[in-house]
Amino acid sequence: MVYIRFASALAAASMLLMAAAAEDDKPNTTVKDHIETPSVTLPASAMTSIGCFETGTPLENHGDYDFQSPGNCQLICIEQKKNVMGLSDGVNCWCGDEIPAKEWQTGNDTCSTTCSGDDTSLCGGKGSLWVVLTGVTRNPVDYYEIPKSSSSSSRQPTSTAAPKSTAAASASATPNPAPEEDSKPNTVAIAVGVVVGILGLACIVFGVWFLLRRRRQRQAEEDYRRNAANVNAFVNGGKLHTSNSSMNDSRLDPSFMDRRQSNGSIADNEDYSRRILKVTNV
């Protein structure tokens, strides 16, 4: 019963860890200042595509719109005076001043969801953002720099003062290729490792508990057999069963010597095993 409760608690803890790991993998979808359409119409310049990114940081999500399109999101970001815009899940519009970090860029095939208001255009993917420059400025736009303490697997710069990398507004509309690998920590692998460690510890504890229980059962069986033998010996008129074998020797039993007394014709108090010399007077 104790083992079943322990296993149930362990399974619940494993499910919580897996849920937390899955939650960490999801991008930030918090909506700030929900805006569906721009309140005013402002002149817009040509947009420049940057590529697909797995997270919207440091952009801000302005919510979804049933008829979302790149042009509609561009006007929203221009109204907010933001240089960078992003589209995700086919309906969400993001705006910001910096392009997400290069380490977070993924393959372009990840952003394959069409826009809810324009089937001919792509508006990101499931949890992924298609990032575009709004054309507000003709100056280069900076990439977001990942804080060193936020990811242990981030690549370290080779110089002591590395300048921010920039993307020119005149870049080609063709999306940039994806980087070699993702720098975000694999929280799923960490959670799985923790669960495996807990399971191993549980197996060790159960093994120790089983051995101790088995030892107690064997001791109880030996005590039962010994008591049963003593009872049988008592019922049959014999001696009690003990672990000392020397007590079974009849020569050491005082009561056995008393059994030599009898009522026969031979006197037991005389020794006939040797001749007796008798002296008589002549």
TrEMBL record:
<feature type="domain" description="WSC">
    <location>
        <begin position="46"/>
        <end position="135"/>
    </location>
</feature>
<feature type="transmembrane region" description="Helical">
    <location>
        <begin position="188"/>
        <end position="212"/>
    </location>
</feature>
<dbReference type="Pfam" id="PF01822">
    <property type="entry name" value="WSC"/>
</dbReference>
<feature type="signal peptide">
    <location>
        <begin position="1"/>
        <end position="22"/>
    </location>
</feature>
<keyword id="KW-0732">Signal</keyword>
<keyword id="KW-1133">Transmembrane helix</keyword>
<dbReference type="GO" id="GO:0005886">
    <property type="term" value="C:plasma membrane"/>
</dbReference>
<protein>
    <recommendedName>
        <fullName>WSC domain-containing protein</fullName>
    </recommendedName>
</protein>
<keyword id="KW-0325">Glycoprotein</keyword>
<keyword id="KW-0812">Transmembrane</keyword>
<feature type="compositionally biased region" description="Low complexity">
    <location>
        <begin position="149"/>
        <end position="175"/>
    </location>
</feature>
<feature type="region of interest" description="Disordered">
    <location>
        <begin position="145"/>
        <end position="184"/>
    </location>
</feature>
<dbReference type="InterPro" id="IPR002889">
    <property type="entry name" value="WSC_carb-bd"/>
</dbReference>
<dbReference type="InterPro" id="IPR051836">
    <property type="entry name" value="Kremen_rcpt"/>
</dbReference>
<keyword id="KW-0472">Membrane</keyword>
